[in-house]
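As a warm-up, study this chain.
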Amino acid sequence: MATPIIIGATIAGIAYSSRFVLRVIQRAKSKQLFEVVTPAFTVETIEDGFESKMSVAEAANILGLKKESTKEEIKIRHKLLMIKNHPDKGGSSYLATKINEARNVLNTK
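Now compare it with the structure written out below.
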């Protein structure tokens, strides 16, 4: 009678352990993508302010990317900046709007 319970508990333990290992591997892979992108904010950019209609160059500068960045790099950098500047987390709604606008401009170029 105890044998089926032991077998079931063993299978469940193996399943949860496997799930944990897979999640750790996925997080390790995604962390490498975040480290590839480097910010490119300069004092000159902040002093100049924003243009009335955002250009591709300004959008790339806001996200800290090159104009030729891939959609995956844009997505990752947008996510990182929104995590840091989201209005629900105490960030500025104006900056969040500009970050979203920059993502849209770069994705549609």
